Amino acid sequence: MSSMRVDLLVVGAGPAGLAAALEAKRHGLTPLVVDENSLPGGQIYRSVSRSPLADPGVLGPDYLRGRALVDAFTEAGIAYWPQTLAWQISTDKRVSVTRQSAGGGTLQIEAGAIVLASGAQERPFPIPGWTLPGVMGVGAAQTLLKASALVPDTPAVLAGCGPLLYLFAWQLINAGVPVRAILDTAEPGARREALRHAGGALRAPSYLMKGLKLLRAIRAAGVQHVKHVTSLRVLGATQAEAIEYVVDGKAQRIDTALVLLHQGVIPNTQVTRSIGCEHEWDEAQLCWRPKTDPWGETSVSGIFVAGDGAGIGGALAAEPSGRLAATQAAAMLGKLDTAKRDSRALSLRRELASHTSIRPFLDALYRPADGFRAPADDSTIVCRCEEVTAGDVRRMAGLGCVGPNQTKSFSRCGMGPCQGRLCGMTVAELLAQAQGCAVPEVGYYRIRAPIKPVTLGELASAVDAPEFLSERAGFPK
């Protein structure tokens, strides 16, 4: 396989990745950014430089803010390879990539340092009927709006918890799309628990004001807002026809052909797990995240994680996170002395703290309820790829399965195309519940390369670096 070498390889072109690349160039490194998408911006700023929406302003000022970052990145002339999948990364910082256009082709990159900016993914939300046509994640629906200007042609019911639930409802209202109802699954005591962290929240008043603005707009639009929902079930024979929910022990029903589910986001750890980086359980955010030092460096020397992939902090926190990682990478590679590194880090850490002080408040306010993380109904599918149910996982626990990797041998759970992204957290929680232990004791799937599906044809079509580079604008010849 042909190979090439770069100073710093950045995987992901969201706010953390773009900021890391800009910072790296500032310190004299030659960065290369690879990304699966066709345009820079990641999920948060998806298509912001070339929006298909007649009025991108319907997505809000936070979205439009990303245009300045994307423009700065584009004008900097940094090497950027869109539609490029990094499917294997080794501890010696060799990265195998495949281009997903121009006929494919595989190339290996040797990097002096790597910044992983793979971002977050939606937390699995397995409820009865969630695999029916007409049910999808809020994040996926938002992607369709940002990337293709596609909006629902029927009033949607949004169910779950988390800031994105309300942000997307507000965006739909701005786009002229009626929202049928919001079914809030946050527990009754969540607000009281969140108030314990009010001090940190008050240090970030802009976040609080933004949340109040969304709620006021949703209320003004006359959207039905149901709180303290304790059970959800999508009804329908071949597609979604209604959603049933329980409040105060009473079942109620809303007829709808479109249900959008969301209960927060978690770090996408597939890449770091495939490398062999150490991970730790975050009890506040109820998720795994790679163990990193204050610069974002993982347990594998020279490999950093920036942005939501290292712990959920949001787009504004992702930028200083990416810059910190690139600053340390520049020092490691001899482009920056310790004094200048530390001086630069002072302002970056202050900026990061200004955006993360509110996280304990938000984590408590939108903590997903136990019953929605580990479904009680045994017939609920938890592994969509292999159609494994919650009852199947509980039976495997009864047979002696102590961790997710054993469930693979028993049921192929986690062996489908998503490689456990949509079931890993749920399976771990179900096993922990069945064994009466904590999730960290259960562990997580062992992830192996390729971290996403790659065809045999792509693996066989290794190309020389010059041929690969001919399709990639901006790389220094």
TrEMBL record:
<feature type="domain" description="SoxA A3">
    <location>
        <begin position="381"/>
        <end position="460"/>
    </location>
</feature>
<dbReference type="InterPro" id="IPR023753">
    <property type="entry name" value="FAD/NAD-binding_dom"/>
</dbReference>
<dbReference type="GO" id="GO:0016491">
    <property type="term" value="F:oxidoreductase activity"/>
</dbReference>
<dbReference type="Pfam" id="PF07992">
    <property type="entry name" value="Pyr_redox_2"/>
</dbReference>
<dbReference type="Pfam" id="PF17806">
    <property type="entry name" value="SO_alpha_A3"/>
</dbReference>
<protein>
    <submittedName>
        <fullName>FAD/NAD(P)-binding oxidoreductase</fullName>
    </submittedName>
</protein>
<dbReference type="InterPro" id="IPR017224">
    <property type="entry name" value="Opine_Oxase_asu/HCN_bsu"/>
</dbReference>
<keyword id="KW-0560">Oxidoreductase</keyword>
<dbReference type="InterPro" id="IPR051691">
    <property type="entry name" value="Metab_Enz_Cyan_OpOx_G3PDH"/>
</dbReference>
<feature type="domain" description="FAD/NAD(P)-binding">
    <location>
        <begin position="7"/>
        <end position="330"/>
    </location>
</feature>
<dbReference type="InterPro" id="IPR041117">
    <property type="entry name" value="SoxA_A3"/>
</dbReference>
<dbReference type="InterPro" id="IPR041854">
    <property type="entry name" value="BFD-like_2Fe2S-bd_dom_sf"/>
</dbReference>
<dbReference type="InterPro" id="IPR036188">
    <property type="entry name" value="FAD/NAD-bd_sf"/>
</dbReference>
